[in-house]
Design goal:
By secondary structure, the protein is α+β, with helices and mostly antiparallel strands. The chain contains five helices and ten strands. The mean pLDDT is 90.
């Protein structure tokens, strides 16, 4: 996936998104994170049911996952996995393939919770981000994006991003009118620098 598409994806997730779940499969060598409120429209048409997407980011082959915090709350990661809490992503602090960001996280936080340790390899694809008072580092040899219908290609990410911004513009055009969309938090808090 091109660096520009990864940046677009990072922004689509981190603008108003939440980290909602994670899982690993040791046998299949897979680590997966799930996010809600990603600014990717998961429909080909814009209608009154249009909403932001729930996405899974999947890392496979030499996959690893660690959480970083200051030890204030011991079980937050278990509560997240059990769907008891979600964590707000810090906008523009979600980055792909930046080793410097991983080093900064590892230096900043006093506690590392290894969910799945690195294997023999380094993991060619990485993601690092901050969510509320914690940080996450995940990686693997391969990276893919999924929704409830399956894997999302790079072309689909670009298309769905464009559709989401079309929806956002239409949301504001119809706001306060009879044909207004239902209230959408992702639209209401998003005021981009450029249209």
């Amino acid at each position: 996936m091109k660096a520009s598409t990864l940046e677009l994806l990072a922004d689509a997730i981190s603008d108003v998104g939440h980290w909602v779940w994670y899982d690993i499969d040791e046998e299949a060598d897979v680590c997966q994170l799930e996010f809600s409120a990603a600014q990717l429209l998961n429909q080909d048409t814009i209608d009154e049911k249009a909403r932001s997407a729930t996405l899974a980011l999947r890392f496979t082959g030499n996959s690893f996952l660690s959480f970083h915090d200051h030890g204030e709350e011991n079980d937050w990661h278990l509560r997240l996995k059990n769907d008891e809490i979600t964590l707000a992503i810090e906008h523009e602090r979600l980055v792909f393939n930046r080793k410097k960001a991983i080093r900064e996280i590892e230096a900043e936080f006093s506690r590392r919770i290894a969910i799945k340790e690195r294997g023999e390899g380094e993991g060619k694809k990485t993601l690092a981000f901050y969510a509320d008072a914690v940080a996450v580092v995940i990686g693997g040899d391969r990276f893919s994006v999924h929704d409830f219908d399956g894997e999302i290609t790079e072309e689909q990410i670009l298309k769905r991003s464009g559709l989401w911004w079309e929806y956002w513009q239409d949301y504001y055009k119809k706001r306060g009118k009879k044909n207004a969309y239902p209230k959408d938090y992702a639209c209401d808090v998003t005021i981009p620098l450029r249209k």
